[in-house]
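Hello,

I think I submitted the heme C job twice by accident. Can you confirm which output corresponds to this input? Input:
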Amino acid sequence: MMLSICAASFLRECRRGLNKLLRGEMMKNIKDIFLIVVFLSLTGLTPITTDCAGAVNYLSPQALVSSENENLLYIAQGGARQVAVFNTNSSKVIKTINLPAEPTGLDLSADGKYLYVTCAAPEGRVCVIRTETNKIIKRIPVGYDPRSPVLSPDGEVLYVCNRFNNTVSVINIKKNKQVAVIKVLREPFAADITPDGKWLYVGSHIPDGPANAESVACKVCVINTKTRDVDVTISLPNGSTGLRGLAVSPDGRYVYVSHILARYTVPTTQLERGWVNTNALSIIDAGSKKLFDTVLLDDVDNGAANPWGVSCTKDSKYVCVTQAGTHELSVIDTAALLDKIKNYQSSDTKAQGGAERQNKPGGYGSAISTSTGIPNELSFLYGIRRRIRLGGKGPRALAIVGSKVYVAEYFTDSMTLVDLTKWPRPETVALSLGPPPRMSEKRRGELLFNDASICFQKWHSCASCHPGQGRVDGLNWDLLNDGIGNPKNTKNLLLAHKTPPAMITGVRDSAEAAVRTGIKHIMFAVRPEEDALAIDEYLKSLKPVPSPYLAKGKLSKSAKRGQKVFEKAGCASCHKGPLYTDLQKYNVGIGQGRDEDREFDTPSLVEIWRTAPYLYDGRAANIEEVLTKYNTGDKHGVTSKLSKDEVSNLAEFVLSQ
Ligand code: HEC
Ligand code: HEC
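Support: Only one job matched these inputs. Its output is below.
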């Protein structure tokens, strides 16, 4: 184990040295030369990216920030655990800065002197880098998997989303210290602040609450930065999930949010016209702090899967959205967009047509709860946006410098520069960040899992319903493998290959079978067997993320007490360690409607802290509900005689897995 970790970091070091050589940087010390020689001999003299020895050797750019005065771009490279400094004049990486953990986000002080980098780990840190020396001068402890750092306009406060603590850290810049923690909703993922510094908008990655509620959608929390309270919570339309990008327009008037708009209330019988998943941009009016409307980024026969980064040009004239699943950038004329929405809204109110359109029988829009009907219009952006094909794959982060949009492409270690000066025919330039990666099978599987170009009309990818590296979207889906009219909550794919059969009903013998039927019946695609094999490899490589309920990697006192209750209540007979499943099917008295009397495959409890809601139809918002409200007659473990404390200790134990 130790040996492979050492080998991994050693190879990473070697590659760093090689990258320097390829960039033409001077060999400053003997160590670099030595490492390059070793690396070249290990890899057979080919300057390629491999992930042999388990090393993560891809750069995987995933966040960008620009320093306009200095003509620099800072690029967080998650795979390489470094920040690259890119000169926009020479279009070259001029320096790299090593980090202690995967960098997930960046922000830069207004004077360009300090770079703040969130580094993901259970004990997350913000690394403060002095840009003059490119040295880390301070590491500020924050929460679990920190991301999306946002500096207040006066430069005095830094806000950071702690994804797995469901909190926002408030850091005093002078003291270089966390001074407050604000509770927000599930998995805060993207944030931005209004130009007056008064309001911080924080987007939740996936919905919370039960999946059979009337509306299931991720939300945006608006924090009053003075009182440090959540002032308003704005719900996006029913079916909103996979929120990844959020940007306040520089004029402070609107907040743009990118997300998936799932049509989860209809069976997944076809994909045409966005029947299953659509891809959206929500616009919040910053004045009233209300949802203004939601528009689809898709075209009638061409989905815009997995919208990710959002950013506006400084004059607020254009809003740009990366489409990670289709390898494109959408550039939207904001004045035309806002006008069109206003016209539509006023004519819609007059004609009272919105609600009617929405509720028409069989209308795919039945999941959507806004009144205008705009979120169902697949040609709404026609004529007011440009869909620009990018050179690389997996565009996630973007940064705008004047009229130049830099988009970082996660899977190809590249960037595309989109120059808007030639609007409406923007020009693109492909930029390289390092040697082109030669993908291992596992990495190719990861790309395929995220790639909507393998899907009929590019409506979605596997990652649309299984975001966060094969996890869950918080929704119920009426897949066709177990009949129609009995939706099932999306499953975590983390241990799918180790815990056959697959699907909660066990209708597929194995995860391998589920992967192949997924390609055929959910992507509506025919792909070669090697693609399915690559996806298998990727899913098999996923590792559990440690529970935030653990204290320094160990069970808390309450969880230890809960462990005893787990035995006493008979949970362990079916949820057998170490994966907490005996791979058998049981009727635990939960099935309703078409699933009454159905046996379900005992699910693993590993990483259950991250996959709410619970039970086959997602009716339980939390573990307590599984143990009390929905366990009638003690058919699902003996819980009726447990005291309140015992229930909460048991929940704590389960959530620690
Ligand atoms: C429209 C949403 C959606 C999409 C897209 C989707 N899935 Fe799923 N997936 C689900 C749901 C819902 C379940 C759980 C269904 C059940 O338990 O009956 C599931 C279950 C699975 C399982 C079984 C897990 C287990 O342990 O039982 C596998 C494997 C899987 N999906 C792989 C994939 C792959 C690979 C893709 C892309 C080719 C994909 N999925 C695309 C919704 C989706
Ligand atoms: C007889 C076998 C059996 C016993 C005993 C049992 N379970 Fe389960 N458990 C299951 C099955 C089957 C399901 C799937 C039910 C469903 O999805 O609706 C399940 C589902 C769950 C879930 C929801 C998982 C998810 O991802 O939605 C949790 C949590 C859970 N069990 C915890 C417990 C605890 C705690 C105990 C002890 C009090 C317990 N179970 C006892 C078989 C069992």
